Amino acid sequence: MKPQVFGQIKKEYDVFYKDLLRNGKLPLWSTGKGFWGGVIADEVYEAFKRINLHKHKTFIDLGSGDGKVVLIAALFCKRAVGIEMDNELFRKAMEMQIKLNIPNALFYNNDFYDHSIRDFDVVFTYPDTPMHRGLEKKLLNELTGKLVHYGHHFHPQNLKEEDKFLVNGNLFTVYSR
Ligand SMILES: C[S@@+](CC[C@H](N)C(=O)[O-])C[C@H]1O[C@@H](n2cnc3c(N)ncnc32)[C@H](O)[C@@H]1O
Predict the structure, then answer these.
(1) Best of 9, 36, 44, 66 to mutate for ligand 1, by most ligand atoms within 8 A of CB?
(2) Among candidate residues 124, 120, 160, the one with its CA nearest the CA of residue 140
């Protein structure tokens, strides 16, 4: 769980968000096919502890944005993967990975519909579109592990809810097929 590295992750991302704000940009933007907005690092770290993420080997974030969730997951799992179609966010994730020296994370700059999620122990989503537009179908076909869903919005309708809890008022729900 490496609390010291987690502290460094938080610090580096805070610098990134402050730089954006200083340049008149909010840390959220449209990415063409989707919309980027980041999670709160402390909430995700707490949730990963609560679901015993360290007992799982592989993790994937579908639409990994600036890579923060993947780098935090890499503190718990053997391999953490992120897929993001936005070039700028993908580059930022790689830059952070190198800066923070976290070797067991892997980022891809493309569409997550082109990647199979079979055999991943934990699949994470902070969705930017309703599930019925395609993601739920992919999950129903390919999910072999657990889905960790962040947020009150865009929940799947046909997966089995296994657990749900709030961290600072934000909802985490764990599903399986
Ligand atoms: C709400 S953000 C979540 C970012 C990150 N997971 C986090 O929690 O901090 C959703 C991200 O998914 C990306 N995205 C949406 N559809 C995608 C697709 N089909 N393939 C790859 N990335 C996608 C968007 O570009 C955006 O960065």
Answers:
(1) 36
(2) 160
Which run of H or of E encompasses 161? Answer: strand 160-167
pTM tops 0.85: yes
Q: What is the DSSP string of 56-98?
A: -SEEEEES-TTSHHHHHHTTTSSEEEEE---HHHHHHHHHHHH
Give the residue from 41, 47, 165, 63 showing the smallest Cα distance to 109.
63
How far apart (Å, rounded) are the C-alpha atoms in residues 30 and 28?
7
Task: For 94-118, write each residue's pLDDT tens digit.
Answer: 999 999 999 999 999 999 999 999 9
Strand pairing class (105-108; 79-83): parallel
**Class of the domain covering 3-176:** alpha beta
Is ligand 1 within 6 A of the CB of residue 175? no
Query: Residue 11 — φ and ψ, nearest 5°?
Result: -65, -45
Contact 107, 87 (CB under 8 A): no
CA of residue 108 to ligand 1 center, whole Å: 12
Q: For residue 146, which of 123, 128, 116 has the smallest C-alpha distance?
A: 123
Residues contacting residue 91 through CB under 8 Å, at least 6 positions apart: none
Q: In angstroms, rounded to a whole number, what is the distance separating the alpha carbons of residues 56 and 78?
A: 8
